[in-house]
Amino acid sequence: MQLVIVESPAKAKTIEKYLGGDFHVLASYGHIRDLPAKDGSVDPDDGFAMQWENYGDKGKQLKAIADEAKKASRLILATDPDREGEAISWHVQEVLRAKKALPQTVDRVTFNAITKAAVLDAMAKPRALDEDLIDAYRARRALDYLVGFTLSPVLWRKLPGAKSAGRVQSVALRLVVEREREIESFVPQEYWSVAAEMEQGGQGFTARLVRWKGEKIDRLTIGKEGDAMAAKADVEAGRFTVDKVETKPVSRNPPAPFTTSTLQQEAARKLGFSASHTMRIAQQLYEDGAITYMRTDGVQMDGSAISAARKAIAERYDGGYLPEKPRQYQTKAKNAQEAHEAIRPTEFTRDKVGSGDHARLYDLIFKRALASQMASARLERTTIDLVDGSGSHTLRATGQVVIFPGFLALYEEGRDDSDDDDSKILPRMSEGDAPAKKKVSAEQHFTQPPPRYSEASLVKRLEELGIGRPSTYASTLQVLKDRDYVRVEKNRFFAEESGRLVTAFLERFFERYVSYDFTAGLEDELDDISGGRAQWQAVLEAFWRDFKPKTAEVMEQKPSDITAELDKFLEPMLFPPKADGSNPRACPMCGDGQLALRGGRFGAFIACSNYPECKYTRKFGQPGSSGEGADTGPEILGQHPETGQDIVRKSGRFGPYIEMGEGKEAKRGSIPKDLPDGEMTLDWAVKLLSLPREVGLHPETGKPIVANIGRFGPYLLHDGKYGRLSSTSEIFEVGMNSAVVKLAEAANRGGRSSGGREPLKVLGAHPRTEAEIKLMEGRYGAYVTDGTTNATLPKTVDKDQLTLEEAAQLIDARAAAAPAKKGKKAPAKKTAAKKPAAKADGAAKKPAAKKAPAKKVTSAE
């Protein structure tokens, strides 16, 4: 018997179908061991020796593999064709060797697609394990461990509130933070544009003023309203005729097939997928045999695949869409790793696979790969200049016409922050024509700061700089979110205060190790290891020789000295010059105190030097002490009409709040975000401080119904049962009848806090039961329900991207598992058997949360 080891059970099931009865295929469920999350797992003094530890939840699977290996005549390691796949195979071999269960013959096979032909061809061409790739894996893993477990303790002790640092994670965070700084320091500049709405032959078009009074007009030339109005008047008074028509043919070539990075970027732009969601769906498509391996830097396609693509093009389109020669692409990415084929369909005869997000991602991959072998698009770009009778003023209209669509008939690449000014269609005009002038407008504009990074643009920037690996970008970005160093709003990354402070600390004390050139250079060295051009221990020694003394030096400094240095380093951001020339560090509350950065139990903040006499503070992330969004200190809203005490608006660690009184007797309340007028007034403050509000006694029980604001928003409470209110205003408006109805709805829904709750989204009718499926927000996260069965969304599923089919599958799976709860012993066995299956999505990566000590893990790419 021959034993074959792969990563996931889905992959194992598919491959076993292709092999004969002499083969038995088992899954390792991803990585089977890792470095323990404790000091000493890597010993620099002993040649960087590593102490590996088997995952606790892999014991049963490892025993099954070992038992089968003892009976096997040959072990075939068929994990993924990349560095991580090579590492998994090596780990399996080493564990079996330690258990004295390693068969006499051990072979390594790789295939780029899980198809019968690819698998059988790979089985016929076995090889030995690639020691260079294994060394590169060990070097990368040791490097990330040493950075995380050496630098993170420095952060914990010297920078309260900081959670971790990582070799690639910290550099990616620096990109986000630097963009935030650029946006904050950006000074908008006013400018005006003048344009005329014209018409020729019944077709309208827009022409912009490009020459005024004989002078060329650039974007920022007209900077004042007076000049803009004068230019508008001149255009309105002039009679413009066509002076020049310039037509230029343009050819556009199709983009290359997807790599890991470009797939993540395009899925983010066109489908709204996060990088982690894209990789999870792509992994499943690969394991189902629909696409080739999805972790690759290569843009080339196999010769047989190119032939299949050209055949599909010929069958779908006429001959003009098929170029005479096949297109060949070369990788341009910096630090491109081990060459693999691009991501493509395994069969170009299948234009549809699966449903929901699987179908959408497959469609994107299919069209991109097919379009890469199609003919170029031919366009005609036209520029028309219109001059007035005096020859002093010129209007210009630009546009383009698609002469032959070529690959654009199937696919057009998305862009971040694109500008389509040149894509308009113009009417046909000739010199001397005098189009009708319908309207002239002068519009005010302001220059815009650079946009915040989206997942697509951040991944693109990391790849351009040669930082990290495309296969690790998804996990790197996820770590930044999990650590609360960044937040994502409308698919854009915003740097949180904790992320900005960590970046400032690293830039000040570890500048070299978060520099882009150094990080990219380290990637080059790791690639040299995988290519056999460098020795892995020598690369680690060179890094450790400088890094360890630097961390020891910083560790010896007092936290107060660290804070003082950061205060100086961040002065331009925290205390920018004021327009009136006054001292930007002057305390706005007491007047004579000086503001400075301080460190506290919950992180950094700005405080007055006159503390405790002056208790002015503001958040670390608020630049300056004036301007939009800044905290100018406690604000007295007025006096309470009954007590006469001052009601003060303040800002704390958890956001703005109101306070009446002092010390232990003070009454406080958080300021809700949904106030009707958007601002905190004295009237609203009095209302909020009066909470909880008793609506009245329930007509059936005689017990009080209370309205209040809690952790999850406004609510009703009666006899220990809750009902949700829709807004803060409703707390003060809800009457007895409405309150009784809402509480009854809560009881009928069976949820303690779900009564009266509106669904986040109605997804539609269940495709099999026709019950309406809704997406709801629960106390422990989002879930879907068909009115009978509730199914919690896995962490890997983005609720904003959830499809009807995926929701139906979750409900079906939950309903099928429900009866198992009635048993006593059987459910435990069933649950234990299913634990590893949860890892199939990321077979090449080990989810850190599965391992108990992983809570202390601080290194991440």
Structural class: alpha+beta
Work out the number of β strands.
Answer: 32
Spans where pLDDT lies below 50 across 5 or more residues: 622-632, 751-756, 819-861
Question: Nearest-angstrom radius of gyration?
Answer: 32 Å
The pLDDT mean sits at 84
Biased composition (Basic and acidic residues): 430-442
GO molecular function: DNA topoisomerase type I (single strand cut, ATP-independent) activity
Domain Topo IA-type catalytic: 130-551
Family: Belongs to the type IA topoisomerase family.
List the helices and strands and how they pair.
Layout: E1 2-6, H1 9-18, E2 23-27, E3 33-34, E4 42-43, E5 49-50, E6 53-54, H2 59-71, E7 74-77, H3 83-98, E8 105-108, H4 116-123, H5 131-158, H6 169-185, E9 190-200, E10 203-212, E11 215-216, H7 225-237, E12 241-252, H8 260-271, H9 275-287, H10 303-316, H11 356-371, E13 377-387, E14 394-404, E15 436-446, H12 455-465, H13 470-482, E16 486-489, E17 492-495, H14 497-509, H15 516-530, H16 536-555, H17 559-569, H18 571-574, E18 595-600, E19 603-608, E20 617-619, E21 635-639, E22 646-652, E23 655-660, E24 667-670, H19 682-689, E25 693-697, E26 704-710, E27 713-718, E28 721-724, H20 728-733, H21 736-749, E29 761-765, E30 772-778, E31 781-785, E32 790-792, H22 804-817, H23 826-834
Family: Belongs to the type IA topoisomerase family.
Pfam families: Topoisom_bac, Toprim, Toprim_C_rpt, Zn_ribbon_Top1
Biased composition (Basic and acidic residues): 430-442
